[in-house]
Write a sequence for this structure.
């Protein structure tokens, strides 16, 4: 997709009177107020979740060995998540953890207790530095607005912020209550300790979701309650569905200031639930279509309502990508996440490199499609050696987990039930990973699956993309995905092309250009067979093995 060199213009009627440009100079003063990098200002959600999970696993093992109270083991995992992703909650979490460590000090080694106290106090101090910097960011953003403040558009509309998190929080709390209620049913004392660790962790996650929903809702309500500062900026949608904000005089998008997740807003407050659901479906479809490849949206003029700072809620009115459409009004559905100057430049450099790689892969995919169109009337792709490696890893993980739960006295009923479910899941997944097959003909794609090949017409196909380890095909009524290992740094160093990248590029070229599509009609034998018979055999073997061991 090609975008204009100049930013897409925002109509003058959408710009409040007296609204100031947030220039590079003023934005640099705001960035100078950001806290140091060691305050965990911007940690990826995946990294935060991974570290919290690691701490949970280590704490659970120590607790099951009798060396740690379940509340402390799970509490540290939740606390790590708060430090990295929700620092506002650390003010409550740190004293609770210190109190728990004091209560348990007599039953734990002094080195373990001391280490825990040092970690809590050190992270508490780091979070204090980060939160203190927010007031300076706020003051400099307000100063950049030059005293201009106006009400946000649609201030009287109901606040929708936090609805999903509220529901998620209650669901997780219910799961925690269920885990706690059944903890006594586990066979050994070690298993019961582990169940209580999971219970406390789920309770902490539920509280985190509810607290995040409440904070977002309060800040969104405050944004509507009084006139707020406004600034003229530039925005651009990134490849992950978020929005990058730039200074008004940075049309080349060289230095993103912060990112924020936005949700579109309908000014008609009388919409029925059906209309709201349709709007949500349209927004989701727009996001999915934007994930067609690794390109980014065009740079657009915008007005930023609300003074940005780490964790702030904002509203953005921006030019639509379609010049025939009115400006977009979008509320933040996540906190503002600032980028330091160095991090912003690195992000922009990665984006340019990613865009260049995407363009090169697009050209290679088109060239390959043209070559194949001349010699083949039907195209086929199937599982390869990387899929076999992925399947082997899945099977080894399942066997390791089963062995971990096995002891000389046999299985408890709960362990037996979990192992049965684990084996049935593997019995379904393994054949699909080993025997997947995609056939392209003039009518569309045939994707072999559990119950047989499924047809997707070219008109219904939305996108084919490779993200991280996953190849995904999305169409109007469903999707299909398969995963395999990927080592990006090794591929770049050796000049290798991942099979999923080549497949996605070729199918994307066919989707966009009808002349590159196969001209033949595939037969039933070419489209692949159902894999449920193999799944049934594997499931039977697993059940027989469990009965024999039992």
């Amino acid at each position: 997709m090609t975008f204009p060199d100049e930013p897409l213009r925002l109509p003058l009627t959408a710009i409040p009177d007296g609204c100031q440009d947030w220039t590079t100079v003023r934005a640099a003063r705001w960035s100078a107020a950001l806290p140091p990098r060691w305050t965990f200002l911007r940690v990826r959600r995946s990294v935060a979740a991974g570290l919290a999970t690691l701490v949970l696993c280590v704490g659970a093992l120590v607790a099951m060995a009798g060396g740690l109270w379940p509340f402390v083991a799970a509490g540290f995992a939740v606390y790590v998540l708060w430090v990295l992703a929700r620092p506002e909650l650390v003010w409550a979490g740190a004293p609770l953890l210190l109190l728990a460590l004091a209560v348990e000090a007599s039953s734990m080694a002094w080195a373990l207790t001391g280490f825990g106290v040092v970690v809590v106090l050190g992270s508490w101090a780091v979070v204090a530095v980060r939160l203190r910097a927010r007031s300076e960011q706020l003051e400099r953003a307000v100063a950049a607005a030059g005293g201009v403040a106006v009400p946000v558009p649609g201030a009287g509309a109901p606040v929708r912020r936090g609805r999903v998190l509220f529901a998620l929080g209650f669901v997780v709390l219910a799961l925690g209550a269920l885990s706690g209620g059944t903890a006594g049913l586990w066979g050994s004392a070690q298993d019961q300790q582990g169940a209580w660790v999971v219970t406390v962790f789920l309770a902490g996650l539920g509280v985190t979701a509810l607290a995040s929903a409440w904070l977002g809702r309060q800040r969104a309500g405050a944004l509507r309650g009084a006139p707020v500062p406004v600034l003229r900026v530039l925005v651009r949608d990134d490849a992950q569905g978020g929005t990058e904000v730039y200074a008004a005089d940075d049309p080349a998008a060289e230095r993103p200031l912060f990112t924020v997740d936005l949700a579109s807003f309908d000014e008609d407050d009388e919409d029925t639930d059906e209309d709201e659901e349709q709007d949500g479906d349209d927004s989701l479809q727009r996001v999915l279509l934007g994930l067609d490849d690794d390109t980014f949206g065009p740079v657009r003029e915008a007005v930023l309502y609300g003074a940005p700072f780490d964790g702030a809620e904002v509203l953005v009115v921006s030019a639509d990508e379609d010049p025939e459409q009115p400006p977009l009004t979008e509320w933040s559905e996540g906190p503002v996440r600032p980028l330091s100057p160095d991090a912003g430049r690195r992000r922009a450099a990665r984006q340019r490199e990613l865009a260049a790689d995407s363009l090169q892969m697009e050209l290679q995919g088109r060239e390959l499609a043209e070559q194949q169109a001349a010699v083949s009337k039907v195209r086929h792709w199937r599982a390869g050696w990387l899929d076999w490696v992925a399947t082997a890893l899945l099977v080894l993980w399942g066997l390791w987990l089963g062995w971990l739960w096995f002891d000389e006295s046999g299985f408890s009923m709960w362990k037996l039930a979990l192992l049965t479910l684990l084996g049935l899941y593997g019995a379904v997944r393994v054949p699909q990973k080993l025997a997947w097959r995609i056939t392209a003909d003039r009518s569309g794609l045939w994707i072999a699956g559990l119950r047989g090949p499924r047809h997707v017409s070219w008109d219904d196909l939305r996108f084919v993309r490779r993200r991280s380890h996953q190849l995904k095909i999305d169409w109007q009524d469903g999707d299909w995905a398969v995963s395999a290992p990927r080592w990006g740094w090794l591929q770049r160093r050796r000049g290798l092309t991942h099979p999923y990248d080549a497949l996605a590029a070729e199918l994307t070229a066919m989707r966009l250009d009808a002349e590159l599509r196969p001209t033949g009609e595939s037969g039933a034998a070419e489209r692949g067979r159902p894999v449920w018979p193999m799944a049934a055999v594997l499931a039977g073997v697993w059940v027989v093995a469990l009965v024999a061991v039992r």
User: Anything to note?
Assistant: The radius of gyration is 27 Å.
